[in-house]
Amino acid sequence: MYYLKCKHCNHLNEVKSEYMVVCGLCNRKLEDNFKDWKVRHPEKTFEDFQREVCLTEEQVKKGDLSKPAGKKNKKGIIAGAIGALLMVLFIGLLIGEFIKTYKAQFGDSDVPVLEQQWYTGSYAGGVSLTTPKAMKSAGAMLRNRLPEEVQALIKEMDVYSYSGYGMDLAFIFSEYVPEVGKADLEGAAEGALNELKKQRGVFDFKNDKAYAQMGNMIGIVMQGTFVKGGTEYEFNITIYADGLKLYQLVSSNKKGDDIARGVVRRIYDSFKVAGHEESKTE
């Protein structure tokens, strides 16, 4: 028998069918379900999924609830470190000295932000993003915060940020050296989430995960809420992988701020990568 552990309530679900996507105890979506896994591994079978992703009956009896051997690798560690770095930048924007009001940055305007003419910029990796004002670069400073062994495996890394209208946004592009083989989408997503969860003062963390596609790139979209300093925030983490390239976009705003939500939505709708078609979420 094989089992999947629910990351929300820790219940062990026996995997009897490829159609099992929610936990039998809390009824929330299982992040490691076969349907989503199959999108990323179309050539593999349900039996492969059981062997590579699920826990065995022997593991459960021994109390060994770690994932099957071989699941983690150097690519995952690298991607996790980069994903975590993005969250360090994001938290810095959210609660640090870099936050400024729109008035302090750009002056007053009688025109609502969603009716204004925005800036469309071209950024690293062939990315196009439309924001109220141009994003600021912070790449060199943050790259130096990565472990030396990770820096040695990165060919290029650029980081940009924007704060205004009640929301904060960060974009990071990274390209690995050929020795890495391929960017690890799952590792980056896990690293970003774990870093956000472990930040001091962050609690009541909730998130949903879905897979997206932009041209021939597979992506992950994670949305949810968390509480920090007595305030509840909404967040969105969108990550795409293309060979050795990794694209990560993360934003946050106070829950219930409709203007900030509108700004976030417009920015994400503008997110494009040269050479790829329109994106879609499954």
TrEMBL record:
Membrane spanning residue stretches: 76-96
Keywords for this protein: Membrane, Transmembrane, Transmembrane helix
Protein name: Uncharacterized protein
Source species: Butyricimonas hominis
